[in-house]
């Protein structure tokens, strides 16, 4: 543990040095004209904020991370369907248990901020159905986000509980989210709101029943569709349709078809347990487990995660890896 504290101090020092040496940012607003004869107005520098991070006694950045799997969000709970009411309650429950929403790739790339003492949770949505993101029209014919769709519910929860954060990874198929007149606008809107777009392939095939070339073609078709709405968007993650991987898993990771290449970093399974932390020796980005969001599985796994040394708890500092001594052997060895 000590060497990490030393490392932390070095890093903080290095960051401070870097920040001080950073060239001044381009001014966002033009410099106001100063009438001749009058001395220019000099704005004082803002006071340096150097608040130390709070020490999180139980920080555990080798702990497990729940990646929840949602499908349809609709009025009635059912198979592959979470009710609107239950989805709202899930967000409240996650907030109260100390979780903060993160996008899958942001978190696993080490780019997501999780406040000190809180735990990351990834919400994933498969099949890009209308209940996940729906527009309604007001009396004047203006579009607005349906407050009962997943995106609307996430926005509302974030407004209530800012520490819950606003994130979610949506695994898209062809013709996403119904309302064919708005699909491009919706994808762009989601990216603007900070959500992540993932691939679930264009036509949702069984990967074990088609050729490798057909797999690549289907993946590229979905990617080209996303690019129509959000040019050049890098899709980082693919959720395996039906949870079935190609015989050679790497076929779904990277490749090209018709001169268009794709490059995924993460493959998502269907089921069945909390995922390993990014720095855990057992983290396998090409086979990431997810927990189906049902009453039974959610309460079972969230209760399990509250057990000793189980769940990921952030130290609040993305530059330092903090974990209990007992887990020393579980750290991923970097070559
Ligand atoms: Zn699916």
List keywords for this structure.
335 residues, alpha/beta, TIM Barrel, two-stranded parallel ribbon, binds zinc ion
The second-level CATH architecture is Alpha-Beta Barrel
Reported for the largest beta sheet, the result is: 6 strands, parallel
The gyration radius over C-alpha positions equals 23 Å
Question: Hey, roughly how much beta strand do the residues contain?
Answer: 15-25%
Give, in order, the helices and strands: HEEEHEHEEEHEHEHEEEEEH
The mean pLDDT is 89
Q: What is the straight-line distance between the termini?
A: 21 Å
How many beta strands in the DSSP annotation? 14
Shape: globular
The CATH class assignment is Alpha Beta
Q: What count of domains describes the coordinates? A: 1
CATH superfamily: Glycoside hydrolase/deacetylase
How many separate helices? 7
Poorly predicted ranges: 5-35
CATH topology: TIM Barrel
Notes on the structure:
This protein has seven helices and 14 strands. It is an alpha/beta fold and 335 residues long. It has a single domain (67-330), classed as TIM Barrel. Strands 1, 4, 5, 8, 9 and 14 form a six-stranded parallel β-sheet that branches. Strands 2-3 form a two-stranded parallel sheet. The chain is globular and about 50 Å long. Residues 5-35 have low confidence and may be disordered. The site of zinc ion has 5 residues, from loops.
């Amino acid at each position: 543990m000590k060497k990490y504290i030393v490392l932390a101090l070095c890093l903080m020092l290095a960051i401070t040095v870097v920040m001080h040496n950073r060239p001044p940012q381009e001014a966002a607003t033009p410099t106001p004209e100063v009438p001749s004869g009058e001395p220019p107005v000099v704005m004082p520098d803002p006071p340096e904020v150097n608040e130390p991070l709070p020490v999180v006694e139980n920080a555990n950045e080798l702990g497990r991370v729940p990646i929840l799997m949602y499908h349809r969000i609709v009025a009635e709970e059912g198979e592959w369907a979470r009710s609107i009411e239950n989805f709202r309650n899930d967000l409240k429950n996650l907030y109260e248990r100390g979780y903060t929403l993160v996008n899958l790739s942001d978190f696993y790339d080490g780019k997501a901020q999780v406040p000190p003492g809180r735990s990351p949770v990834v919400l994933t949505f498969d099949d890009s159905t209308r209940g996940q993101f729906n527009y309604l029209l007001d009396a004047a014919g203006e579009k607005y986000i349906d407050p009962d769709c997943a995106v609307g519910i996430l926005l509302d929860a974030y407004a209530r509980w800012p520490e819950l954060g606003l994130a979610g990874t949506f695994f898209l198929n062809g013709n996403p989210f119904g309302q064919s007149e708005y699909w491009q606008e919706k994808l762009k809107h989601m990216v603007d709101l900070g959500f992540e777009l993932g691939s679930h392939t264009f036509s949702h095939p069984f990967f074990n029943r088609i050729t490798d070339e057909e797999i690549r073609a289907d993946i590229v078709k979905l990617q080209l569709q996303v690019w129509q709405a959000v040019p050049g968007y890098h899709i980082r993650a693919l959720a395996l349709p039906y949870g079935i991987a190609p015989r050679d898993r790497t076929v779904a990771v990277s490749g090209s078809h018709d001169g268009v290449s794709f490059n995924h970093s993460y493959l998502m399974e269907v089921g069945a347990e909390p995922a390993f932390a990014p720095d855990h020796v057992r983290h396998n980005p090409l086979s990431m487990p997810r927990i189906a969001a049902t009453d039974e599985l959610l309460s079972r796994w969230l209760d399990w995660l509250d057990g000793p040394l189980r769940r990921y708890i952030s130290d609040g500092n993305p530059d330092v890896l903090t974990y209990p001594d007992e887990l020393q052997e579980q750290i991923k060895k970097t070559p």
